[in-house]
Amino acid sequence: xxxxxxxxxxxxxxxxxxxxxxxxxxxxxxxxxxxxxxxxxxxxxxxxxxxxxxxxxxxxxxxxxxxxxxxxxxxxxxxxxxxxxxxxxxxxxxxxxxxxxxxxxxxxxxxxxxxxxxxxxxxxxxxxxxxxxxxxxxxxxxxxxxxxxxxxxxxxxxxxxxxxxxxxxxxxxxxxxxxxxxxxxxxxxxxxxxxxxxxxxxxxxxxxxxxxxxxxxxxxxxxxxxxxxxxxxxxxxxxxxxxxxxxxxxxxxxxxxxxxxxxxxxxxxxxxxxxxxxxxxxxxxxxxxxxxxxxxxxxxxxxxxxxxxxxxxxxxxxxxxxxxxxxxxxxxxxxxxxx
Length: 339
Fold this sequence. Notes:
Layout: H1 3-30, H2 32-35, H3 39-49, H4 53-70, H5 72-81, H6 83-102, H7 109-139, H8 159-183, H9 187-217, H10 221-242, H11 246-268, E1 271-273, E2 283-284, H12 285-288, H13 292-319
Helix pairs in contact: 1-4, 1-7, 1-8, 1-11, 4-5, 6-7, 7-8, 7-11, 8-9, 8-11, 9-10, 9-11, 10-11
């Protein structure tokens, strides 16, 4: 197999892992104002992802590093052209991470409210912007002969890009709400299941519109199969949630996101960044990849360390597999602070 094509698949694998794993993190964060009736409920929700959210986030770092090493031209064009969008994502992720660590440091309602708001923003903004960015990559952007992006941030906010952002926002939100129902018990579990029914129905409609638009513009048999699998998995997840099968619902939701992301990479292939005004300026797997020697070394490194990473991640989820309940939340006892 061509090593450049192999690494296109590996980069896709890293982003699939990131969107599946950090996707439900985003969903939990966005669900705080919908499911958190009091501070204990919000602490329960945050504790469901407490042991794993930072581990999930490392997938985008590894994906970015793989992109830089395997496809330096793609990395340079993407990170320079989408600079403001990626900067907003970075700021949102920083605010979210800081909020997880600092919201419990003061016994002040106002203090916690501010950090809860940053968690919601830090979850919703990346969930929307990642979808918007990937939709624009698939659609094609304005590239000159030197493969430089010549558009602006507002050019990315077109109809297709916004629909892509709304799709990932709803998919991640539903993924997170289903995760909450899987990891909690009692009233919050019941509210999460009810909310997943509503958000899941909205996600089905919006995702169907996005996949249909993508299929019309970038039709291929491979894309059609993958998009159909994503649609079936999404509907099956919604039905499983109705029946109270949270484990199946969560697994099928993860499959939905995985198939959807893979379908976008399939629609992109063999390009990595199409040029919409002039196809001759497009970045492809061939002209954007590193040398064969570099890709060979990277392949050996990936073959050794990727299985270890997957084993470690799986072990972490196994250790923290139990449900989080209100009774398991300890009383906070910091020094009183005025609101």
